[in-house]
Amino acid sequence: MPLMTLLARVGRTLAFFCLICGPALAPPASEATARSETPSVITVPPAAQPSANFNADAATEAYLAEIPRASKDRSDAYFEGGYWMILWNFIYQAIVLLLFLDLRWSAAMRNFAERLTRFRPVRTMIYTAELMAVATVLRFPLAVYEEYFREHKYGLATQSFGPWVGDQAKMFAVNLVLIAIIATMLFGIVRRLPKTWHVWGPVAMIPLVVLSSLIAPIFISPLFNKTTVLDDPKVTEPILSMARANGSPAHDVYKIDASKQSTRMSANVSGFGTTLRITLNDNLLRRGSPEEIQSVMGHEMGHYAMNHVYKGILYFLVVIAICFTVLRWTLDWSLSRWGKKWEIAGIGDTAVLPLVLLIASIFSFVLTPINNTFARTQEHEADMFGLNASRQPDGFAQAAIHLGEYRKMSPGPIEEWIFFDHPSGRNRIHDSMLWKAKNLKLMTGQQEP
């Protein structure tokens, strides 16, 4: 879901911008991709055909049997490896942030910014740029492995070195602007409201989140991908008809050239009001069946129709408010113990930012299962909406199998609760087959000449 992705990025940007990857040499894109083994068009298995003896459990197993074993093993290895990447990222980040504090790099950067100007907001921006630049360099080894080598190893990336570096530079620039604005605003609040900054800080984040969701599809996305109006009535007419039937004000369907970066299939309904747009990536258009495309778009429209955008903003605000409250207590305690050692004068000192990020990263790490559960719940709601809107349970099962190229299909319940921000592929297929079982007459009618 686009807004939840955006909100997650904004939250991670505040707490994890020192993990922005830097450019790196890397091998050429691998051609041994998961798509070479998973069928692009998946036929409906005999056990999943509508009949008087239709059984949702048997139909689910039949669909899962369509996945080649090699493809399943690879996606499981990739996704399970991601569990370790969460841990290593957290540990790596903590070490980097502690280096900034313990070696007093942060204090030195603050002193440098103070020598350049007397204007506090400009000092904050200069310090932020310094911190991001050094953090990017320190992030270099892990970024190269996680975001280039590993993606190519599992056949999920298509970019060669040059374009990949270009995208990283663009993302660095976007994050630099965003983070500089956020940091300057929040430090201004801390200095003017030293006793209640933890209350007003989250409130000040609201317009930034809303503004980001408005401008992202129009100004940020085009920096990385080319978006064009899709002119194929066979694809667009069913989608726009479904959009009108479910109260979506979209008038066009857009295509984005995601294949230049990745083999992943996706779609979204993004923006608000006049900026609302329905977008499919070219991998979905090339590999998905018409039924699959319609089911995916029904899911995305579900996010819009059920106001997940606004619920996501509210949830984000609650999380940020709790985080700021935690920050208020932990910053006071930490600075009372180590403030002099780190040469940090107080909470209003820009040199405190690595400590803020360290505490926020611990908070976010602990909150991972809760954040994932919130997102997964909304995704399930959108799944059911999409099934009712598109009436394409087999298309949705096909989509779940394609997404299973990089998501583990059959996790355990605890595993899914902790690590999955979407329902597992098995559960999504089973939900679609349960819907089919309850609507057999409808499905049989669709297949009649």
Structure description:
This protein has 449 residues and is mainly alpha-helical. It is built from 17 helices and four strands. It has helices at residues 2-16, 56-64, 69-102, 105-116, 120-153, 161-192, 197-220, 233-245, 282-287, 290-305, 308-342, 353-366, 368-390, 393-403, 413-419, 425-438, 440-447, and strands at 227-229, 253-256, 267-270, 277-281. The chain is elongated.
3D shape: elongated
The residue fraction in helices comes out at 55-70%
- Low-confidence sequence ranges: 1-37
Total beta strands:
4
Q: What structural class do the secondary elements suggest? A: mainly alpha
- The value of Rg in angstroms is 24 Å
**Proportion of β residues?**
under 5%
Individual helix count: 17
**Biggest β-sheet: count, sense, barrel?**
4 strands, mixed
Element pattern in H and E: HHHHHHHEHEEEHHHHHHHHH
Taking the alpha carbons of the first and last residues, their distance comes to 36 Å
Mean pLDDT: 87
Widest beta sheet: strand line-up: 1-2-4-3
Q: What order do the helices and strands come in, and which of them pair?
A:
Layout: H1 2-16, H2 56-64, H3 69-102, H4 105-116, H5 120-153, H6 161-192, H7 197-220, E1 227-229, H8 233-245, E2 253-256, E3 267-270, E4 277-281, H9 282-287, H10 290-305, H11 308-342, H12 353-366, H13 368-390, H14 393-403, H15 413-419, H16 425-438, H17 440-447
Parallel strand pairs: 2-4
Antiparallel strand pairs: 1-2, 3-4
Helix pairs in contact: 1-7, 1-11, 1-12, 2-16, 3-5, 3-12, 4-5, 5-6, 6-7, 7-11, 8-10, 10-13, 10-14, 11-12, 13-16, 14-16
